[in-house]
Batch of 3 targets.
Target 1
Amino acid sequence: MINSDFPILQDSSNDGQGDTVSLSMSVSELDDSGEGKGKKKRGRPGKQGVASKKARRSPVDKAGRRPNGVAHQNGEGTDPSTLFEVVKQGKSAMQSVIDDWIESYKQDRDLALLDLINFFIHCSGCKGTVRIEMFRNMQNAEIIRKMTEEFDEDSGDYPLTMAGPQWKKFRYNFCEFIMVLIRQCQYSIIYDEYMMDTVISLLTGLSDSQVRAFRHTSTLAAMKLMTALVNVALNLSINQDNTQRQYEAERNKVAGKRANEKLELLLEKRKELQENQDEIENMMNSIFKGIFVHRYRDAIAEIRAICIEEIGVWMKLYSDAFLNDSYLKYVGWTLHDRQGEVRLKCLKALQTLYTNRDLFPKLELFTNRFKDRIVSMTLDKEYDVAVEAIRLVTLILHGSEDALSNEDCENVYHLVYSAHRPVAVAAGEFLHRKLFSRHDPQVEEAMAKRRGRNSPNGNLIRMLVLFFLESELHEHAAYLVDSLWDSSQDLLKDWDCMVELLLEDPVQGEEVLGDRHEGALIELMVCTIRQAAEAHPPVGRGTGKRVLTAKEKKTQIDDKNRLTEHLIVALPMLLSKYQADSEKVANLLHIPQYFDLEVYSSGRMEKHLDALLKQIRVVVDKHAEMEVLEACSKTYSILCSEDYTIMNRVDIARSQLIDELTDRFSHSVEDLLQEGDEADDDDIYNVLSTLKKLTAFHNAHDLTKWDLFKNCYRLLKMGIEQGSMPEQIAVQALQCSHYSILWQLVKITEGCPSKDDLVALRRVVKSFLAVCQQCLSNVNTPVKEQAFMLLCDLLMIFSYQLVSGGREALQPLVFNPDSTLQNELLNFVLDHVFIDQDDENQSMEGDEEDEANKIEALHKRRNLLAAFSKLIIYDIVDMPAAADIFKQYMKYYNDYGDIIKETLSKTRQMDKIQCAKTLILSLQQLFNELILDQGPNLDRTSSHVSGIKELARRFALTFGLDQIKTREAVATLHKDGIEFAFKVPNPKGPEYPPPNLAFLEVLCEFSSKLLRQDKKTVHSYLEKFMTEYMMERREDVWLPLIAYRNSLLTGGDDDRLSVTTGTSSTSKASTVRSKRGRPPQHKRRPEEESVEGSWVMRNDTLQTPGGLHTPQLTSTVLRENPRQAADHIPDQDSSEPGSDPDFMHNPQLQMSWLDQQKMEEVNRKERGGMNYMKSRSGGVRQQVRGLMEDDAEPIFEDVMMSSRGQLEDMNEEFEDTMVIDLPASRNRRERAELRPDFFDSTAIMEDDSGFGMQMF
């Protein structure tokens, strides 16, 4: 038998560098040198010539005789009925296929082996065929080299990597073929020192090939071959042991009864088995050292995974030979593999070993050496690996309690709170094994007879509570319960025991549950009740609610009935005991929502319902915490459901409670209003506590018949007029009034309202909006924040969308914010959202915040910004207000970047042009702020200017790569930017640059988004603002103008994307691609001019193409907004270009500006004639030539992203952005020339409306 001492399987090398292939077979077979040497029958036995071999039936004869037969190739490689095809089709039983091959091997082993060799070659995806002459005359290396040339270079796929069920089945058949082949040959030809020598030699050569397909396929074949040989070796070892026992038994007999012939036969058999064992050991040694030690660290992860998976099988099958440190070290080293797939195979291989506790002594040294690595893998970045690592650690714990230290266990404990459920469940199994498993059968049997708190679960529940408290993650009890749910359901569903622990006094000698322990137990119990009733993980675990199976549904119903039965009786007693503890009561009040409420009536348990309602009434009277009050309100709401017969009983109790609270509230309000500034703390507390209770109930219940709005409004008016209202009363009064309005709106929308009802509600809403607006200037921040949120919510609810869906009758309820209210809302956002951390700390009145409070404050500010952003997105607040939001994008990217980005995306979908004007306005505002701060002489290299340019670059990215779609918006942006740059002249005179000229450098960031012909038009528009003096200047102060002009002049005439056809004339990079289709230069130029001219001349009648058309129902340009019907639009002539009034909707301005510029250019050329050209020929032409020369080496590069830059900034693009793998370029100029090739011309050519697309 193979033992751990035989040298052929020992390998102490760490890296395998010095490993040699010590074959006990013929060296000539490894090297194909043709020289035989070795022991006994080494070489090729039966060395008769080919001519003397038995005549062999033709493949056709064989296939005809046996349908499952395997035909041989005839040496010419033309026979299609190969082993590969038979295995691939999988139609024949594998054993019959192997039997046919063995028969053919016995007839002519060279041809049979040739079939087997070609089988491995074809399974690698190679189309070549090894011929008989090659097999006899060429070495393996030469054969493999020749087969490498036969590979299909067009495809990198081969059978083992191909997708689909057919190839998945092929892999299985391939592995089975090898296993069955060895099994069928194990008693005969496997020992002929020819077949195995040849196969192992071939596989060793293929596994060392540079071709991945050869290496992958041969490694899989060799590892499966090794596994089959391990099975053979194991059988031989068993047979040897049996023979040895028989020999010893026979030899120990007395001389008269001893059979010498039998002893000789047993000795001969033992010798034969030992020889066979040696042969198998030599084969395994050859495979292990020739293939495994090199391929277990192959560059391909799949190959490494195959090696590790199979060595795990060898260790499990033949642990006496393979389960030692010489082989375990390979698995241990590979635990550090960089690919998760390989690490996963390591862990699964080890799991099969640690599952058998008898193997633990052999694994002890390995465990000590690699335990830390295994424990650290529980935090693996790949969740599948982490799960298996936790399961392996659990197996180690199960096998040996002392193997893991407390620190090791603690590293796994905290994973029960992981958001990834499989990891958490695995950690829960570990925790269950460590803390809750009982190992003493006698103690377990004695404890099992006890019930309640003295039952086995009593102590385990105490341990669970202690663990929960020590973990210090009290907000995540639901996660802990879910992690333990699969492994500890019996414990977690023992609600009787939990209730007894909470209600009964401890017996003598039993440890008393402390206050913290009771609170933790109540929280855990509520979580177990929720898990049982809902039968799905808590929020944050899993992708959503899955459909339950019939068995799971039945379990859910049974659990719900059982918990209802136990807790209907116990809940009133629990509330009575803990009624003074707000945290415990709030948790207990969540329980009724998981009851089967029919049990109250069907089980005649109305008295327990009355007891519950009584306790809730007591809780409402005693507590003023919103968490407790909201829990009471929700419980009443559930019990009042119309689906249950108990509704009337609960409704009466609820009405009595509200009547009492309302009366108390009315009297306390009267007292407070009468006393005014002289009100004492008792009066304030009475109003506040009662108002909190009513607000909590008004949230879930319709209390409009009690008319709470009236007294709340009186409190708010007094607070505004006198300025002395406590902030909490004001906050609660605002919230209660808000609920009252919403309930009134619900009643109106669900019924048939009269005109008086609409008028009354409109009056209420109008007065409340006015109060909220006044509260925005309150000195107390909580009051202002509450008023702001309610204003945003009500403006959304009572916007023009209220009348959609056939509800035109509600038109009187539509409110539109005036400019004053819009400005106040915007100012509130700027003052309370976009603040620095230091300002925030000051606004908190110097209180030192911990990390949790900071996160909470940030969350509140994000809600404020989101509320205002919704008003912009839904066109309730004018879009220009978003400019003040957009300009904060870079500065507050970490806090609000996602909200601002989404706002920008939605506003662009609503109106591209108006959004572009808003973007440029935000940049103008930043630029003006910089001018005011630094003066007119800006340092263009300062971080502030760079910040504005970076913001512009980010904005440019959001336009995406589809220049056709964003054409109008980008052109409008440039128009406004140019007007802004030149609108204020320099007071020193025209020879000095305008103060805003440096803004053109910011505008350069958007030049790459212009089409070529639009660049010309924008450049012409720019020249309107320029004088000849400006064109001649080259000083630094004029560099922004030079840079902007260069960005509009980048590329030659061939860098053009035709709007009429959607195709682009090729750039330098695409010259070769389109030589055959390009017209001569002297013919092409008139065509381009005629196309552009015709496009310009058609601007009168053409519409925006269908693909770019803005629907009338959503466009703020084309539709008349209901809230703006009566607004006065100021005269455009009275405003400066680029000023805020430009944002007023003017379709003519937005739809035809660029075309007007082109028409004016044509008319100007006609009027000027030759005089114009002469006047420009001297100076201007020289200036243009100078500019073009400058453009060859621009002072400021055109702002086109490099390939790397685009990839880094791809996250800045939105849903409508095309993601294209851009080619690497040497400079930005080439990228500008390549840009037209990114568009799909067919999409534009199919749309006839695209031939005359207007820009504005």
Target 2
Amino acid sequence: FALMLALPAVATNYNREGYEIFRSRELGKHQTVTTLRKGPVKVWFSHCKTSGGTGSDAIFELQKGTRIQIEVDEGYAIRWVILRDTEGGKRYSDPEGIKRISSVTPGYKYYFERNAISNSHISGGNQNQLNDDDNNIVVYNYDAPEKIVYMWSHNNSKWDQFKVRDIIVGYVRAPKVRFERDRYDMYYTSIPSSFFKPVLNYDTHNVNAEFKVDNNDIATVTSGGFLKFKRPGTVVFTATCSASENCAKAQCSTTVTTKRDGVTFTSVGLPDVLFSNTPHNLRDYLNNSKTKSGENFDYNDESFSVTSSNNAVLRYDMPYLKFGGTAGEATITFTQKETNFYEAASLSHTIIVMRRDQDGTILIKDANEWKLFCKLVNEKGMTNLNAKLEADINLGGDIAMIGRYDHKYAGTFDGQNHTLTLNWNTGESDIAPFRRVDGATIKNLRTAGTIKSSGHFLAGLIDEASGDNNTISNCVSAVNITSSYTSDRCGAGGLISYIYTNTQVTITDCLVKGAINATGAGRTGMGGFVCYQYGTCTLNTCLYAGTNNGSNEYSYTIAPNATINNCYYLNACGSEYKQGTKVTEEQLRSGEVAYKLQNGRNNTVWGQMLGTNDEPLLTDDGAKRVYKVDFTFNSQVRATRYATRNKAIYGSMPTFTPKDLLGSDYNEHHYYSGIAFEDGFNGSTTVTSDKQVRINLAEKDCYEIASKENWKAFCDIVNSGQNKIDAKLMRNVDLGSEINMVGNDSKEYGGTFDGQGYTLKLNWDSGSNGYIAPFSVVEGATIKNLRTEGQITSNEKFLSGLLMSAYGTITLTNCVSNVNITSSILISACDAAGMIYFVKPGANVTIDDCVVKGNITATTDIGKDKMAGFVGSQEGTCTLNNCLYLGSGNGDTFSRTFVGDAYYGATTTLNNCYYLNTCGKAQGTKITAEQLKSGEVTKKLQADRTDKCYWAQQLGEMPDFYNAADKSKANYVYYDAAKNGWACDDFRLTDGQPLPIGLDFTAATVTYERNFNGTQNATLCLPYDLYAQGFKAYTLSGGNKNEVHFKEVDDKLTAYTPYYITANGMPQLGGRNIEVKAYKADKMTIPAAGYKFTGTVAGVSNATAAANNAYILQDDGKFHKVTTTNSAATIPAYRAYIICPPQASGAKQLSVVLDGETTGIGSTTNEATDGKNGPVYDLQGRRVADRLDDARHRLPAGVYIVGGRKVVVK
């Protein structure tokens, strides 16, 4: 497809070598046309004829979709074609008009050009109807790339057929521009300055070429056609001649390849072994190395190098090989890197170099040097060489052994405490680092790794030993040996496989810790140290810590037929008979075995970094020496520990239970703490020598708790096993929210816990956990004098204010649970109890003198099904004596006030137990709050016990357990066993304040202070008998209208009896050793002649007094009627009041007649100077001011009563 343009984008350049004109008029009308030719141009139509056209001339008429092929002869190319005066399709001015031609050869453009004839300057233009026309179409490409150009007429069914009147073809020369050669190949080194110019033949082209390459990374090109190579490689070099006036554009290419030269290195001329320190010159060797090109090799270029695999052995210092000072094998590598000039080439050549010290001892520091030493001994026969290891060596899988049957090693090999590690796997027999020795000394060597073989006679150090004076000392074999040899005994030895007859071997201070494993018959013969021993073998202070699967037939833990001195073994290897002393892994770790192997020698041979090393070490480092520490109690060693010098003992300090130390003197109820060691010795004490440490044991009769941390520690002590320990609470302790409980299912608490009257306070939220109580599980325990208070909240069941599960014989005495329990359980009853939840089968629980005050609340209906004030689940024997339930619970169904329903066979006994509120079903005896406050319940709870006081209280408060310290409190009543009665040391009445009294007792001191405000008369009703002192007492004798009559009584006043008294001064209403009586109402009212004189110790309200028509004594000496109009008028406690018979109840006041003599208010005064400071009453008995002198200016004018006298205020 070619570009279509309605108008030329640029002016058409009609330059040409020549042109040809093909006119339809020359053919005539109605002719079929296929091929036309003029000069070098040929035109071919696929379907064409001439028609009449416009006017009288013919015109080329093409079928729709007809191909027009225009071709020029070889050596020419087509630049332009003019299709003059075309028809068919839309007008030339329409954008669709150019589509008369559907397409042309790619690379050529076509467009309408009206003046194409004029612009082309062809001969005869604009003559004979060969003229410019709007419908002229030009097909054009200045470069003239083709010698054949194709065109296709349109194929539009709606348009007329394509017609063209004339065809003019412009053509140019097409020269054969070419390079002299199609390909160039050369060495990079042969290019002068890396420049090269291929020869170009222009043929007849008249334009200088432009040059380019396809890969500028390999080469660049100058404008003159010179190639400059950057590196070897292949490029396509292209020359382009641009189109000219009469020549087409021409282009040609050639391939240019540059390659690298090559050098070849050989081993000829290189040494295999060097022994001296004379440098070896490589110059001649390098000068003799030739290249592929035949040029001399340039070894001075930095791309060439000589390297050594081990510069410590042999290094290159151009052009010399120089020694690095370390013996071994070094591989010298000659390397020519790939460059622009040379291909990569290399050669590696190994040279052996041996090291010796000044004494001639071979020095070995790596696997290569070990192998070199093997070669010296085995191949060179240098069997007497001495050698030293300078480093740990890992031979890996390379089997390289010293000595062989014809070259037995006889020198001294010093491992210098380095390790030779191997990983050998073979099918051969007779495998060991030292294959054969004869009179050799091997010392300070460690071997490690594995030997696996299907053969036999395998060993961790020596395969075979012969000759005299073979000495092995301070050596360790940690080689794991596996033999799959099954034809006979495997013959494996941890140190030596075979000792020949007439051979002497001494093994001193050696350790074997590798494993030996054989198969089948191979198991029948192996040895921890030596397997076969037919000579003389002595082992001193050695340790076998390896493992094996040897059987007893011919296997030996240490060695057969040997002398064994102070040797030890961890695991037996076949026979243990006369094979040393067996030890355990712990003895190895602890330092005990290292201590025994050292055996008291001054110089350190065996040591151990305890805590780091699991077994003894062979070492001369004194810092690793192990000392022994003996811990003694009563001069007997009870434990031993070991320590590395200047370190603390290994492991933890010895732990002793008191029972361990005391034996039969141990008391499981005592608290043994502070096990201390002499001079403060502890796990951090530095040990510098062997020593003994004395153990000191502190003992208390109980554990003391004074904080929540102490409580947690106590729980830990019990729950860890010392569960019979007694304990005391030393103060009130707030446990907060952290839940720590005493005892568990495996460590039931069985001691005595004495709360000493103190309180454990808790605020526990157990979330989804149940079984919550301060004491979780107890068996055979006693808990006394303990108070708990606070809150337990849970989403679960099994909750208790004191104890969860009781086993065995349990006693609770003088305990108070004031814990509020809330359960939000959703799926079952809350199973909560104030004191104990579970009394387990077989348990015998006695609860004496205990109180539950806490409330139990289930927040769900199902949770309310089961709870109990004291005990929840009763499956044993449960007895409650003298207990009090003051709490509350919202339980129903199976809930009980004291104890849950007993299971079959269980027994519940309630003795003298009382409750204020029920919790589900009532149990015990109901009491009231008044009974509780009055002391009545306290006396009931004391019951008939006379040995001591159990219960006491302050009157007006709740019953509590007796506390001698509380005796000094006012109104504290208690049972005095010495006097066989109830007592109170300090009984006090506060005027006007009622005090409930529900029992008789003797008050050592009675105090009742009452302010008479200067009046000389009063009413009185006391809870005790009293002799009149400083006053006269009267009782009611009758009345008459507005009078009430009294008669004097004997000196003694009776308790709970009303009296009218007169006094000149302050009456004595208290005293000493007074009998206080329990409240009784039978004497509180004295009747006489229809009048009643009633006492009160509780006080009477205004409404009650008014309703009863009561008259109370006022300061004017008369009884005034109480009315509700004066609501402040009440009858205080310890007073008495008059009730008149109906015929006298209308009187507003009553005069008092004592023994027939009327009393009352004296004469009226204007100032009442003797009563200014008294309270002021109006004539209706109402108190209107506290003092006359303060109020006289604000009181309305009138008559008032002050100090029993009338006072006129004007």
Target 3
Amino acid sequence: IFTVCLSAIFTLSVAAQTVTGSLVGHVEDAAGATVPGARVTVTEINRGTSREITTNEEGNYSIGSLDPGVYRIEITQANFKKLIQENVEVAINTTVRVDGKLEAGGVSETVQIEAEQVQLKTDRADVSTQITSEQLEELPLSPDRNYQSVLDITPGVSEAATVGSSFGNPNGSLTNRINGQNERYNNFQLDGTINNQTNVISQTAIVPSPESIQVVDVSTNAYDAEQGRASGGVINVQIKSGTNRLRGSAFAFNTNSALKARNTLSTLDKPNTNLNQFGFTLGGPIRRDKTFFFADYQGGRDRRGQSVVLSVPTEAFRNGNFSASSSRIYDPLTGTATGAGRTQFAGNIIPQNRISPAARAILAALPLPNLPGTTENYETSGTFLQNRDAFNVKINHNFTDTTTGFVRYSFFNANTSDVPSFGILGGPSTSGGLTAAEGPGRNHSVSANLTHVFSNNLITEFRFGYVRVNISAISPTEENLSTRLGIPGINQGDFFTSGGIPRIAISGFDFLGIAATVPFDIRENSFNIVNNWTKTLGNHTIRFGGDIRRLRLDKFQASGSNPRGDYTFTSGVTTLSGQTGTSTNAFASFLLGLPQSVARTTVNQLGGYQLQQYFFFAQDRWQVSPKLTVNYGLRYEIYPYAIGLEAGDQSRYLPETNQSLISGYGSTGERLGVRTEYNNFAPRLGVAYRLDEKTVIRTGYGLSYVPIGINTLATQNFPGQVNVQFQGSNSLQPARDPGGNLITLSTGIPVAPTADVSSGVLTPPGNVILSATNPDAKRGYVQSYNFTVERDIFGFVTSVGYVGSRGTRLPGTININAVGALPNRAVTTADRPLARQFGRTADTFYTDFMLSNSYHSLQARVDRRFKRLGRLTAAYTFSKSLDYTDAFTVRNPLSIDAERGPSDFDRRHNLVVSHVLRLPFGRGGKIFDSNGLRLSGLIGGFTLSGVFTARSGTPVDITGIQIASRRPSGITARPNVIGPARILGGLGPGQPFFDTSVFQDPAQGELGNVGRNSLRGPSYFNYNATLARTFGLTERFKLQLQLAAFNVTNTPHFRNPSGDFTNQNTFGQSRSTFGERQIRLGARLTF
């Protein structure tokens, strides 16, 4: 089979996510004897397509590659009555069992039955959930109505989170962690073709409106061999199609500040908010039973007022007066190089002539505190602006009785503007993000599918997908602002540096300046082709196929440090060796204009990258008996290394020789010597056994390789981009250039010289941050497994099972130039291992497939579909997820095993209950159905929908050392814990959530003993609800009015307490909340 697969396929895609479903069944007579040769005819009742097959010698039948829809099934055989089963729903990626029991009689006689409401999963072993269009339209989705916000009604799926800025992610794509895996490992499909972005692979290119979606299929564990390029979950969204009946809708929703509660901790008036969302859908026949169309549009006009609380220095601090502070301020220009023997400033006051002119000019533009205290003492607000427009157009066509297809085009456009908290000085955005900027985003998606039935036993599917993403952002800052404020050499008039100031990070205070990622202009083009074949041989249904994906990324964005520069001010510069430093000391360092470290990226060449990915699979669904089904298969995946579009677009550092390979120059190849691995075989196995008509036992196993985006391994392209780093000789000394001269705010940051790359090999400067990659790395993989029992209990489909996974050789990055704390003195740059060998003092990162993770869970789900009342679901997960890092970089490269701990997103208990309940009052209900038109009109037509969530807390990571001379270099330091860290439960400023007294600095030369993610934050309880009423305007037209409330009880949701041990002002305190109650009004007209 596998050989046939390789030779027959010329395609690709990320995982060939199926866009069709299948029907299977067993036909027998009243005595239980099998009926071979019975004719089974399935007809899609809304589009008129029909397929026909006969049962085999064992009375079994299987019809694959069925377009999703509602089917009528007719079973006929001589000497038996015709059996008709109506309204059988077939969705994407499902196998629906419809067995038939024929009664003796004539074919002219008919037995007609309705499809059962309860449908057990009898012939597959994967763990999956389908979210229907009714749920998406009725449940209270997030305020921006994103379908991804309710994926967590699936067991094993975490709550949705936002990834990236509003400019890098203008369509508001959300991410979920699935069964303990990183969100980068999920595979999103739209109508069966690519929907993941290329630069940030956890984001989707198109987020369709709820009204346009037919179904969302979420596969989380042990999926078929057909599905891959994912080791987390596979999420396939199907856009609606037109039918023989003209249908449509028009809708409008509004949220404004009058309908939003005040933030629990805010002291300002509620900022003005007004979010309008509106649109329509329309679908129907172009030519009856032949050609159909569906189109939709959704617009959004977001004027979102947001407030944010930040930390700014007091007026006394700005004048250099620290006399009221317990922190002693020492003159860094006195004493020895180790920080010993320093002189404290008289009266703890910095003389005016020592204050940096540039620092003084910056502070003149920085607002003063408007709240009490020395931290979190400034509250401001601003308005986030975004105009969004999106639409889908889909055409389905039945070419013949045996050939069907569709083509879809999707479009998204947005213009976004966010406001910096500190005006011309930048800083965090008022919406809470790290990037304040403005810019457009425009995405396109095309999907096409063609299915041809050669015979009852041979079918092929061909799919093509294309995605284009174009996003950009600039920061509307003053031209030559750094020059005006007295920081020379920053504003050089190019795309990256013409305006704004460097990013200034002062420990314990909020940063100033613009994020390193802005400005940017990113363009992605992704193609994928899929070809699958289905062959039925007796009781075996064999599928095989291939996918090919071609990805291209043109990235006009600085990588690494800020192109305007990064100044980092820490406490050590103004402390005495062996003494505790605070944020007050860090600010004093800023006043003196003396950073502890400085970095800057010089952009000499912008990178473009492309890669191909190849996937092949073969699988067999073996109907061993009417009760036992075995699915087994194999995938084969090839991930070649990305190549640059031009010479010099990539480089790879060789730590063993201290040289860098430059792609495309000299004898250096375009893949920099990184080898392609050809041994990525991924077996899959699933078994489903029907114990009886109401009970199914399933177990499955699957191996999946982790997908890695271009952005992970291919964006370090020294010397195209030179990321220089200047540091003090140790953590108590200010930064100096290679000549020993102080680098201050008033001197600016030196620019790295250009390098001769003609030979393709060069020796980089020792103060340039570099990245290395293992050229012989073997790609990581995740093994997933489950054992599940599902039973129909009085109409409630209940499943309980063990679901687990284990990741091996997962990607990770470590700083190979890190050094631990020394026993007798502060660490110096000369102590770094590569400094001793090559004079290399800068951070040097090494990426390899070196990590692992594990996930174990008990997952339970209840699903009840009521014929007239709606639907109720409940998902509970009891789980434990362990890993080494939430991102790729390991915080302690000297002891990787010490970083193994609970995942950042790990919640031991997750309960999500959703309901769409049509209240049984008035006409059509069970209560007061015929009690007069007036009463029926008053109380009829109501629907109550909601999502209740209860979750235990996520981990809190304790980091930082207060005494600068004890800090390691290139390692995230941790304190010691000397006793149980009791949970005190305090919430709000000044209220410790846990006992902070049990933490202290480690002794000189030691690393702290606190484990990663060793504490837990507050639990989360929330209920979102929608009350809707539907009015029948005419026989065809209906109007629904909605009132949705998010956080109905307005329960304050406190964020995790601070784990920053160095900032004792906030350590252990949960000082901010989110998700205050918000009400949305809406109306939807349908026909």
